[in-house]
Write a structure and sequence with these properties.
The complex is a heterodimer of chains A (261) and B (282).
Chain A: H1 3-11, H2 18-25, E1 27-32, E2 44-51, E3 54-61, H3 67-72, H4 80-95, E4 100-106, H5 113-117, H6 120-133, E5 138-147, H7 148-152, E6 159-163, E7 167-169, H8 173-180, H9 187-194, H10 198-204, E8 209-211, H11 219-237, H12 242-251
Helix pairs in contact in A: 1-9, 4-6, 8-9
Chain B: H1 2-8, H2 14-17, E1 29-31, E2 38-40, H3 41-46, H4 61-68, E3 75-77, H5 92-103, E4 109-116, E5 119-126, H6 137-152, E6 157-163, H7 171-190, E7 195-203, H8 205-208, E8 217-220, H9 231-238, H10 249-254, E9 260-261, H11 264-277
Parallel strand pairs in B: 5-6, 6-7, 7-8, 8-9
Antiparallel strand pairs in B: 1-2, 3-4, 4-5
The chains are: A alpha/beta (261), B alpha/beta (282).
The structure holds zinc ion.
């Protein structure tokens, strides 16, 4: 599979979306709505649930299944209030000492007049800073598209895992191609150069684990993933300097030699 | 509204001076992109690179530091950090070489310490002349290091932002700088230290969505473009006509995302006042 094949697979509307993971992997999900500031952005869904009997906060960027739902959820492109809802739920998780599990799947943060008026940049920036300091374990799983800052806003976590065909990129290959080659049709070339596949992310250290899609969507797939997350949470529970390690995790991206005298 | 007010009330003395004098031989002239007047370099230099109409010309990071900090107080740090093409992106090395040759800078940000009215601060200034201030791993590293230095020595940070956004030729390594710098800002903030951002033209994309919007106090230069998504992208997505002042300093102030807009001529005094008010000593 080429990098661009993976981009196409990641975008496929037949892939499981965040709500499928939430329904299949967790029990007793109670959805919580709204950012308590402006509105409820349905591009992000979040709430409380049990993972193998343990209370957790679960948040996901939701693209929707059919056309009507996809429109209601802005095709998984969150507005600032979506990010602010996620932040509210993360702060709540910290208060009640619950870990946070995040499912990331977006082509990017929503581009629109309202989004700019309500501070899309500020909303993402606030999440980056808050997640960096959150005093409970955070695990982010990229299940489809990881579109730039809009994805990172839910992925400043202790562990970042990616599905085999998920992609994570600073810019869409089409966007990159139209800037570099003035031709969006060159997207496959750009996709290759951007190093956006799960394997690339693993090599760069941006992701810790690549999840096989061999059984994607089956009960076995969800059970294995749920068990893996539970196991990882046990490791993170024992980590005393969680936020320090999280900072060092991101601090290590972009290493430079000391000055030679 | 605020932009109009500004247009009709020039903040400098240029207007009364007239424009009759001939430019000296060989002097570069600039055309104001706002009012289309032709301006001599020496005249602009005298007036902080602000046109009669109030338009703030883009200036280099070094000029900005020279204009807004005490004479000879700037000590550059971390200048040895420059991009090393982390994902071996085709054509990027050549692009970097060109950017370095054109700007005379090694990266898109300059970091160090300086004094303003005698008060010491850690500073970073992004360079429009270097790939329009795009954020690569070296950019993020230099900004992170200046925050870590400021945290260690209990210094305030002042940062002038200019950026077209993330540097796509560095892929995920560029994206990760948003998280990395945010972590460094958080630690500086948790130490109870002051961080002032000055948003200058243009501040967009991944820089807006990270350290530019994380200041305790967010100052903006008049008329600067400040936003997250590119204007054209918004136009194409929404197919609506955009407000006249969309994504300007005035727009973000009106919507509550900047504290104050100050012309460049009053900027040094404002920064001094803010530093002093937060206990900065000479
Ligand atoms: Zn003018």
């Amino acid at each position: 599979m080429t990098a661009y094949d993976k981009v196409r697979t990641a975008r496929s509307t037949t892939r499981p979306t965040a709500q499928d993971y939430i329904t299949e992997m967790f029990t007793g999900f109670i959805e919580l709505h709204g950012d308590r500031r402006y509105r409820d952005d349905e591009a992000i869904m979040g709430g409380l649930a049990y993972l193998n009997g343990r209370p957790v906060t679960v948040i996901g960027i939701e693209k929707g299944h059919d056309t009507i739902e996809r429109m209601r959820r802005s095709f998984g492109a969150p507005e600032p209030e979506g990010y602010r809802k996620a932040l509210r739920l993360m702060k709540q998780a910290e208060k009640f000492h619950r870990p946070v599990i995040l499912f990331v799947d977006t082509s990017g943060a929503y581009c629109g007049i309202g989004a700019e008026e309500r501070g899309q940049g500020e909303a993402i920036a606030e999440n980056l800073m808050a997640m960096m300091g959150l005093n409970v374990p955070e695990i982010s799983i990229l299940i489809g598209e990881g579109g730039s800052g809009g994805a990172l806003a839910l992925a400043v976590s202790d562990r970042v895992w990616m599905l085999e065909n998920a992609v994570y990129s600073v810019i869409s290959p089409e966007g990159c191609a139209s800037i570099l080659y003035k031709d969006a049709a060159q997207a496959p070339t750009a996709a290759e150069s951007l190093k956006l596949t799960a394997d690339d992310a693993l090599k760069l250290g941006v992701a810790e684990r690549v999840i096989s899609e061999r059984n994607i969507g089956t009960a076995e797939f969800y059970k294995t993933l749920a068990d893996d997350i539970s196991k990882e949470l046990e490791i993170l529970d024992k980590t005393t300097d969680l936020t320090e390690r999280r900072y060092q995790r991101f601090r290590s991206f972009g290493r430079f030699e000391e000055e030679r005298k | 509204m605020s932009i109009l007010k500004f247009l009709h009330k020039p903040q400098n003395a240029l207007e009364t001076e007239g424009r009759s004098a001939e430019p000296s031989v060989g002097e570069t002239e600039y055309i104001c992109p706002n009012c289309h007047r032709t301006l001599r370099e020496s005249t602009l230099e005298e007036h902080s690179w602000i046109c009669v109409c109030g338009h703030h010309f883009r200036i280099s990071a070094r000029k900005r530091i020279q204009m807004l900090t005490d004479e000879n107080s700037f000590k550059e740090m971390f200048s040895f950090i420059e991009s090393n093409d982390p994902i071996t992106f085709p054509g990027y090395q050549e692009k970097l070489e060109k950017a370095r040759a054109k700007s005379g800078e090694s990266e898109s940000v300059i970091t160090g310490t300086a004094r303003i009215g005698g008060i010491k601060a850690a500073i970073f200034a992004m360079s429009p002349e270097f790939m329009m201030g795009s954020m690569g791993a070296a950019t993020g590293e230099k900004i992170t290091r200046i925050f870590e230095y400021a945290t260690q020595y209990s210094l305030p940070v002042i940062g002038w932002t200019v950026s077209g956004g993330a540097r796509m030729q560095e892929g995920l390594m560029s994206l990760m700088q948003m998280a990395k710098t945010s972590g460094a800002v958080l630690r500086h903030s948790e130490a109870g230290l002051l961080y002032i951002t000055v948003l200058t033209d243009p501040t967009t994309g991944g820089v807006t969505a990270s350290f530019a919007m994380e200041g305790d106090i967010i100052v903006a230069e008049p008329g600067a473009t400040v936003g997250f998504a590119g204007r054209r992208v918004v136009e194409q997505t929404t197919m609506e006509s955009l407000p006249r002042d969309f994504q300007t300093s005035e727009f973000i102030l009106e919507h509550g995302f900047a504290d104050i807009i100050i012309p460049r001529t009053g900027e040094k005094k404002l920064l001094y006042d803010l530093l002093r008010l937060h206990g900065g000593r000479q």
